[in-house]
Structures are given as structure tokens and as C-alpha cells.
Amino acid sequence: MNLFNLKKYDKLIDLLKRSQQDFGFDQNKIKFSLINQINSSHLNIKQKKRFTEIVQARNIFAHRLTYVFASLILFVALGSTFAFADGAVPGDKLFVIDQLQEKVMLNLPLPQETKAQIRTNIVAERAKELNKISNTADQDEVKVEAIETSEKSLTTAIEQISQNREQFKQRGNAKAVKNMDNILDRLEQLAEEQENKAGRIHENLKDKKLRDKVELKLHDIRKARLKAHRETNNDAQDQNEINIELNVN
Amino acid sequence: MAEESQIQAWVAQAQDGDSEAFGAIYDLYAAKIFNFLVGKLRHKQTAEDLLHTVFLKAWENLSKYEPRSSAKFSTWLFQIANFTLIDHWRTRKETIEIEKIDNLLAFAQNQKLYEDYEFLWIGLSELPLEYQTVLDLRFKQDFSVVETAKIMNKSQVGIRVLQHRALKMLKNKLRKHGITQI
Question: How many of the other CB atoms lie within 10 Å of CB of A217?
């Protein structure tokens, strides 16, 4: 079969071409109906395109604005917890996003006092998550991970805020020192809650390795709690007394 | 027939939402698309309905159309027409009721011409849809092999094979009806 040679069909092809003609139909009626349908649809293409552009631009702007302001306002002024990745707890995939966003927040150029408040709210959030996990999680590993995460946030917060307090004290900023004291009071309370919750989890753990892990974290939480207490009360207790208390517990 | 540059200008305006420009495109191609449809459907009302559907689909998908120097707008439009026809064809019953077939003579613009070539129309109607389509596009609508391949979503070699088979089958059909001088 020679696909390029249509010679033997020349006559037939000629017939086909000569037979071509138009068939009558109501061209205008169909056009009228078509154009009406196009015009009366909710949005024609131009409007739809513009609408889409507006919505996209608004969403991008709103997202950025929401992220920067709403998280700051909610977190700092109201002292409430993150709205991001709602419901995410240690072990969830979204929890990583939570932590990332917390990190970003703390890297923003904010006053030290504001950051101190943010850190406290993070600790409170971890405490809330620990509470939720201890009541709902089936796996002990998840509970232990939650303890580790909350302990880390607590220890980091107390360490950082203590340093800030010291700096404010050296600069003679009494008001800022007072603010730091209030924050450390709150952290001490949170540390106590963490300690109680972690202790209850520890009692119910069957696995020795996990028990040892939690014991270590409990030690760290107590140490952090006492540090917060010492700072705020400006105690004369020296480090030895603190160590004694830690060893007894 | 308007120049391709004018057509592309209307298309661009229509893409921006100009329904009047789209109306101009309709005026240009409606008759050709209708002829393409009615020749196979052999039913005026159905062909008119599908014509409406074709242009509506064209309007809705205009944003996806990108002008190319190697392809005319008509190629894109006929592609939509072909797919619309195929979709409808799948819903047809095996045996068509008599009232669903029109005598094309009734609305042929040139009835004498139709009568002279009625044997050809009958022969064509006995071919599979694909064969009818390739013959229509290649030799009635005068599309090139490249354009026909685009419209039918086949390769150029595929189109050449198809047109060969279609012509062969049509010739055999006509011979069975006593037409031997071709």
C-alpha cells in the first residue's frame, strides 16, 4: 500500500470535492441563543480571570498579614496558643510545621520581653499537648516524645529568659526585670505541671528504657523549675542547696 | 474568508471576554461546522444542538487556546467539533429510528447538486464514522494531512492509512450500488 499515491482514487476524490455543499440551518437563532448563554453566565471569561487574580492576590496578602500580625497578637497580647496546625501534637506530621513556625517567630526582630512572652506561650502549648497525649495516646513512645519536647521548650525558655533578666538587671531596667520575674513565675508553674504529668506517665511505663529516659527528663524539669524559682525569688540559696534538693527528689 | 491574522485578533478579544468578537468567529465557522456535523448525523436538529455545544465548548476553553504559526484556529475548532461528534456518536443506538434520519435533500442549499451526488452521500453514510470524518476533513473541508492529524488526534501516517482505507471502502460500497466508473 503506497500511502502517498492516491492516483487510483483521483476520480473518487474529485467526486467528493464536487459534491461538497452547504446545508441550511437557523444560523442566527443558534447564535442568539449562544451569545445570550455566554453573556448571562455568572461571570464571563474576563470577569472570571480578574476575579481569580483578585482572589489570589488577596489570599497571598491575607496569609502574610495573618501570619505576621495575628500570630503576634494572639500569642503575645492574649497569651493564647498558636492557631497554626491546630490540634497537632508531638508525633503528628503537622507538628513539624508548628515547630518551624515557632522558630520563625522567635527569629523575628522583636523586643526581648515580647520574645520572652512568646517562649512562655510555647511552653504552655507543649504542656497542653502533653496533657492531651497522656490522656489519648496508646503508644508509650509517643508519650515519652511529648515529655522530651515539653521539657526542651521549658529548659530553653527558662535559660533564655534568665539571661535576659540578668542583662536587664545590669542595665538597671527594673521594669523589664519585673516583667521577666512575672514570666519566670509562670514558667515555674508550668514546670510544676509538667513534672506532675511526666511523673504520672513514668509510673505507668512498662519498658525500662523508656522509664530511664523519662527519669532523666524529670530531673531536667526539676532543675529548670528550681532555676526559675531562684531567679524570681533572688534567693541566697547557693548551687549546693539546689543540688541537694535535686538529689533528694 | 477572513485572513488568519484577523481571526487571531478576534480570538484574542474573545479570550478577554468579548462576546461580540466570539460572535464574529461563530459567523465565520458556523456553516462549515454544521456541514461537518450534519453530513454524518443526518439529522438537522441534532446537528444544530451539537453546533451549539461545539461553540459553547470553544468559548469555555478559549483560555487554553494558544495561537501557533503552524496551526490555524479552524484546526482547534474542528478538533472540538470532532470530539463532540464522537461523544454523541457513542450514545447513538445501533439501529437508528427512521424519524431520526433526515433526508438531506430537504435542506441542501443546492438541491440539484445533492440529487446528482446522492449516491455518494448514501455510500458515505455506510462507512464507519472515522472513515467519514477523514474523507470529509481531507477532501471536502480541504484540511492538510497535518491539520487532519491534529483534528483527529492521530499521526500523519495514521491519517494516510485511514484515508486509504476509507477511499477503498467507499469505492467498494459504490461498486455494490452499481457505480463502477470511478
Answer: 24
Across chain A, mean pLDDT equals 79
Alpha-carbon separation of residue A153 from A84, A150, A198, A211 (angstroms): 17, 5, 14, 20
If you compute the radius of gyration of chain B from its CA atoms, what whole number of angstroms results? 17
Cβ contact, residue pair B163, A45, below 8 Å: no
Q: For the segment A196-219, what is each residue's pLDDT rounded down to a tens digit?
A: 999 989 988 888 888 998 999 999
Q: What ipTM does the predicted assembly reach?
A: 0.88
Are the beta carbons of A30 and B44 separated by less than 8 Å? no
Q: C-alpha cell of B91? A: 450514545
Supply B45's cell numbers. 436538529
B22 touches chain A (CB under 8 A): yes
Using alpha carbons, select from A241, A246, A203 the residue that is nearest to residue A224. A246
d(CA A183, CA A155): 14
pTM of the model: 0.53
* Of A97, A93, A92, residue with least CA distance to A82: A97
Q: Report the alpha-carbon distance of residue A21 to residue B113 in Å, rounded.
A: 8
DSSP strand E in chain B: where?
Answer: none
Closest residue to A19, CB basis, from B18, B27, B120: B120
Find where cell 502533653 sits.
A130
* pLDDT at residue number B166: 96
pLDDT band of A235, cuts 50, 70, 90: very low
Least confident of A27-41, A63-77, A90-104, B68-82: A63-77
Q: Which of A24, A34, A47 is opposite residue B26, by nearest beta carbon?
A: A34
Residue A42 has pLDDT above 50, yes or no: no
Higher pLDDT among residues B21 and A241, named by residue? B21
d(CA B53, CA A75): 55
State whether residue A23 is helix, strand or coil: strand
